[in-house]
């Protein structure tokens, strides 16, 4: 862009405007030049000379911004003898020097509190590089108002960009954002905060420091992952939360690793110290309420979360939530984002300013874990954006034992954030007031621009990875320095005493007060009993724990409602022009609703969503390609073929429907990040059906940490329920090893469900299980299992082995009567209309069938192949039962079928290899059911399926077809054994 066409830059001087920094005093120096933008947009000194001559001939011939510059430059040169010799070329070189500080000044900043880091200062920060000499230091130069000497310009640049804070922001393309930050950075008053603010900051730093030393004294051999070396994090966070509250934030959701977590819980969240001390003394994770004990297996102290209200310095109250998480660093990041997005939905926070996400990272994990980028990448996506996240990196300069040079390829651990145009503030963790300043600046940025921002606290670990570690094994030089290095508290106290801003008596008074409270809370911890409300939010009031039996509820819907919502989901707006194929699909769907026959999978799903919406529930479905559906079956969003406009039928189920009440969204190509996001979303409110669909079931492999560390075990470890639904397309169709198996065996392997019927009643089995795994074979059963997620007083994750070819299979249909709640209809039995955990043989069998020679138990789409083969050979002596719910195993219904067929050989048939699929899970449970019925045990179960294999499936279609044919024949035919 040529300088003469810079229409958007009217102000080329260096004005000083904007509010004075709160708590700072004194005259405000003029900010350094924004004019650098114009000079660096392709301007050469020769062009500048030509531009000046053109201006001298006719000022109106150049852009008004250049007219303004030349008028000021010439005027100042004429009236100030000290700059009479200044040339345009010198101005340009000086502005290049200013720009160099703005871009690379952070490389010269004093960031390492230990002084060990040796960094090469970029040559463009040397005035000599631009031709300036010692003789020029006291010359006056005009680059704005007022005229300044080169020495004063350099001093200001050094103070702004090369002190205890290093700013990276010039990679941001948005000019308004850059100018806002420049004004904030270049007008910082070095005299710091008022005495009153300093006393508040000191009090908070003393709390942070003495908390750690108290724990170290009381529990000498306990791992606590203390914050020693990074204690300034606590006052920084508290000041940031205060500032955020002043700017309109009401709720903050925090995710963080183990280091410093207890300090954050106690001093930032105000979790009662007696609770923390009780957990250290073996109090465990349990909660008592009016109905009895709610307990789990628990987790170590530094993984636990909490939720509290706390007052702010400005007199407001702010709600804080710390999300529980495992040692899998950064895995909690998308969970926090999802929970924040849900809070924004339920509080109608449309501009996303009331609910804030804060993520605390380690330097090694922020640079090394891929989920960090997956999470950052969600930040601006329409259905995942939360209005910006504040990222805090507690930069230990060592990741466990790994030096930065071995842990990342970039200069900084935060460089990944540049991809999202996030500003990054590196700060020396020993400079208490610099830490507070950048934390406040981060809060202001987020509230103004609603995008991510990163604060990188460069600190150290005084005691290594944990308190039992010996860090000098691997970092001997660093720990020689650390042993003699004063704490941030010692330095801050000394600095305030030297300035005369506080007395020794004041400091001793705060120390004594804090120590007294810590000891009092320690004494009270011995009789502490945690309360359930410390763990479960108000939205979950009345929901049952695994120890409390929840009544089973019907899930059928009145026929008139089914018809009404059925019409809504099959109707286009007037003049809307869908693709002709989709038009035909919707016409067929309308026919299904009218006749009540042949309802397919997609319509059943849409009916489940629509009826839940009518009942006032929120429904959210996300994943790769979920709007259309990977297999072009869903068409939840339809595009006008002429205008490109979109229509979502489920947005129009009720009058004045909230536009986000039903959300369906194609996600980024992420599994780990997006599944974590949806998990967090589902945890906020139980009255929401939240679903994540994998493009193919095996794609879930990329999100294994979320399954293992959160979804399968979160309730047991942290007393946190979720009703998240995971749809995993599964089934052997000859598509090769990558897209056949959703790895059913993995979900069953981590299922907590007894191999024998357990508990006072079978009704409790599903509540005692950690999740449910189903492989459903009818649209009606899919409808009911989705509605069941909402229609009960507890929540469990639901893993669905979703179909592929059954989406259009001519036999995989249901009648609308199977969805309703009318007695006598096919879906209604003596218990009512609900999900069928097992579907009995579809032949008209009595309660006792002596003539059946073989009972084939199976799950999923293989049923249709088996039934087709049975009909082909007229094998009336074979019964086929479908186990629709694999976990929890339906002992009662399996035993019912075993009694129905007393002489039948029992077969388990599956498509998957023997070492995969459900066989290993089913075998001991089926054997238990058989023993209970007097039918033998494990040795009496016949397995029919593919043999053990390393690969999930063959990649050759003909081989697949032959394998499938053989296993189906062996399951049905006498001569196939």
Automatic annotation (TrEMBL):
Q: What general EC class does the enzyme of this chain belong to?
A: oxidoreductase
Example of a GO MF term: thiamine pyrophosphate binding
Q: Which CDD domains match?
A: TPP_E1_OGDC_like (cd02016)
InterPro entries associated with the record: 2-oxogl_dehyd_N, 2oxoglutarate_DH_E1, DH_E1, KGD_C_sf, ODO-1/KGD_C, THDP-binding, Transketolase-like_Pyr-bd
- For the keyword Transferase, the answer is no
Record localization: Mitochondrion
Region (Disordered) location: 1-35
Q: Name one GO cellular component term.
A: oxoglutarate dehydrogenase complex
Q: Which family does it belong to?
A: Belongs to the alpha-ketoglutarate dehydrogenase family.
The record's section on NCBIfam families has: 2oxo_dh_E1, PRK09404.1, PRK12270.1
Name-wise, this protein is 2-oxoglutarate dehydrogenase, mitochondrial
Q: Which organism is it from?
A: Spirodela intermedia (Intermediate duckweed)
